[in-house]
Amino acid sequence: MRKNLLMVIPNLGLGGAQRAFHDHSVELSKYYNITEAVFDLDLENLYPSGNPVKSLQVGGGGGPVQKVRNFFRRVSQLKLLKKRLRTDICISHLEGADYVNLLSKGKEKIILLIQGSKTHDRNISGFTGWLRKDVLMPMLYKRADRIVCVSRDIIPEMVNDYGVDARKLSAINNSFEVESVWERAQEALPAAMQAVYDSAPILVTSGRLAIQKNQAPLLDIFAELQKVQPAKLVFIGDGELRSELTQYARALGLRVYEAWTDAELTPEYDVYFVGLQHNPFQYIRPATAFVFPSAWEGFPLALGEAMTCGVPVVSTDCPTGPREMLAPESVTPTQPIRTAEWAEYGVLMPMLTDATTRTTDQQVWVDTLRNLLQDKGRCRQLGQAARQRSNDFTHENTFRRWQKLIDEVLAE
Any idea what DSSP says for residue 353? Predict the structure, then answer.
């Protein structure tokens, strides 16, 4: 008899966690009866899986008292839903869902999926950040039957910073639709965009325009690179920092194209903000290199998909994920790297978050990108290696491990 698996996430909006949630729902439905649960349905389901979706019908917002009230209503509603569905195991995605999952625990088993670094997440700050890091996570996370981290380097955080028993922890990387991404990457660019790509070497980056992705220093680097190497920089994605980034680019003297304006798309610009794209891979595959300046990650989908597209990748050695993806046999350094590391499957670079070393670190980026753009042979070799490495992240490989873990937990 198939077991009943309930998956919980705060919302079904746009984001890497929601995409991973969709993949889990689709792939695990091959082995279990899957039901998805969300706190409310205020956002559109952009990644429908075809499995049933249940809303707890408890929104967010309001003052502190209302937020506390909503939190405990969610706990109560999820507890009722678990009973009604006769849930055997409940897997939560994202921290807010973790707390509700743990506090609503009955007879069912509980697995938490940690999608990113908690210790290095700069969005966890202030009083709320203290409450999360010093109270809620240390107190509640140890109650889970298992905790799955998307990167091996999150495991030490869970043990050392939050007191989780190492025996409850395991690492299962995110997976990518490798064949589908490669197929979609073959789609030709629109003619106007192809003219841009034909005009100069192209650096492309993909991701939410947000503090985590740390795109502002990339603009500094690109402005310096242009002084010694012709190139274009393409941003795929949108987010809360859109206006700040476009204004900063212009302040650096860069000519900026914005897809959300009426400007004509021509090769005359330096930086192209093309917004959200239904098929970002057609923009990534023909690029000269993919650049990834994140301040912290989990196991980044955007980086993995760029590797799948067969383009050379240049990424910060940020916590966590890029090193595991590009240099899997290497040991995570105890101190941030200060030079370029030409790894087996891509280039690991200094982070761009330390004000005391930023000028030197940015110059390392400029020199490395110039060398890469001028070396077609190395670009080709790194692109082929990245594509080969991406085959390790197929759904088949990943969810074989998930099925084994779930069955082990159910048998306990």
Answer: -
Instruction: Give the whole-angstrom CA distance, residue 237 versus residue 223.
Output: 20
pLDDT at 14 over 80: no
Report the SS3 class of residue 168.
helix
Please name the residues in contact with 49: beta carbons below 8 A apart, sequence gap of 6 or more: 22, 25, 26, 29, 34, 36
CB–CB of 17/9 below 8 Å? Answer: yes
Give the distance, in angstroms, between the CA of residue 35 and the centroid of all CA atoms in the same chain: 24
Segment 289-320, tens digit of pLDDT:
999 999 999 999 999 999 999 999 999 999 99
Quote the tokens at residue 5: 């698996």
Cis peptide before 320 (omega within 30 of 0): yes
Structure tokens at 137: 């996570």
Which conformational region is residue 321 in: left (phi greater than 0), alpha (psi within -120 to 50 degrees), or beta? left
Task: Provide the angle, in degrees to the nearest 10, between the axes of the packed helices 301-308 and 16-28.
Answer: 70
| pLDDT for res 187 | 97
Question: Is-contact 69 52, C-beta < 8 A?
Answer: no
Delimiting residues of CATH 3.40.50.2000 domain(s) in the chain: 4-175+394-411, 178-392
Alpha helices, DSSP H only, in 190-258? 191-199, 216-225, 242-251
Sign of the torsion angle spanned by Cα atoms 8, 14, 19, 22: positive
Max Cα–Cα distance, the chain, nearest Å: 65
As assigned by CATH, the class of the 178-392 domain is alpha beta
Question: How do strand 271-275 and strand 289-292 relate by DSSP bridges?
Answer: unpaired
- Find the helix packing angle between 216-225 and 242-251, rounded to 10°: 30
CATH of domain 4-175+394-411: 3.40.50.2000
Closest by Cα among 186, 110, 184 to 146: 110
Amino acid at 281: F
pTM: 0.90
